[in-house]
Amino acid sequence: MNIGETNDMTIEEFFLMNEKEGGTYQIDTPDGFKDINFLVRKKRESCNLIFEDGTELGCSTGHLILTNNGWTKASDVDLDSDIAETRSGSKHIVAREYIGEKNTFDLQVDSDESRYFSNDVVSHNCGKSLVAKAISSLYEMPLLRLDFGRLFNSFIGESERTA
User: Fold this and answer.
1) d(CA 143, CA 152)
2) What whole-number distance in Å separates Cα of residue 117 and Cα of residue 85?
3) Which residues have a Cβ under 8 Å from the Cβ of 39 and sit 6 or more positions away?
4) Considering the entire predicted model, what is its pTM?
5) For the chain, which has fewer Cβ within 10 Å, the N-terminal or C-terminal residue?
6) 108 Cβ partners below 8 Å, 6+ apart?
7) Residue 147 CB-half CA count within 13 A
C-alpha cells in the first residue's frame, strides 16, 4: 500500500499484509482514522453474528460490539433485545452461529474511545495499551513495548506462517 491509500480488506488479509510489508497503518473508527498500535493473532472460540441485512461479523466469542445496551460480548448478545450500532445506523442481530476454535485477530487502536469499525459494526478493543500509556505518563516513566510477534517470528517457519 502507498501512503494515503485506503483499501477495504478482511482482518486476515490485513494481518498477512502487515506481516509481509510491516509499516504503520490506520483503521477507520467512528472518530476518524486512527493508528493501529499492535495486531495479534490468537486461536479462540469463535462465532458469526448475523444481521438483518445479511451482514456477518466473524469474531471471537469475547469480542465486544456496541449495542443499544452498551458494550456487549458476542457470546452474550441477546437476539431479542440487542441492536448493534454500525456505520450506517442501528441493525438488529438475528443470529449467532458458533464455529469452533478459529484464528482471530486483536488490534489496538490509538484512541480515547478504543473503538473501530469491524465489518461496519462498532467494535471495541481492550484498551490495555492506553492504560499502560496513562500509567507511564502518571509516573513519568518510559513505556517499553514488547512485540511478541516479532520476538517469536524467527521460530515460525514459512509453512506454519501461511497455514
Assistant:
1) 21
2) 10
3) 14, 15, 18, 105, 106, 107, 108, 149
4) 0.69
5) C
6) 36, 37, 38, 39, 114, 125, 126, 127, 128, 129, 130
7) 11
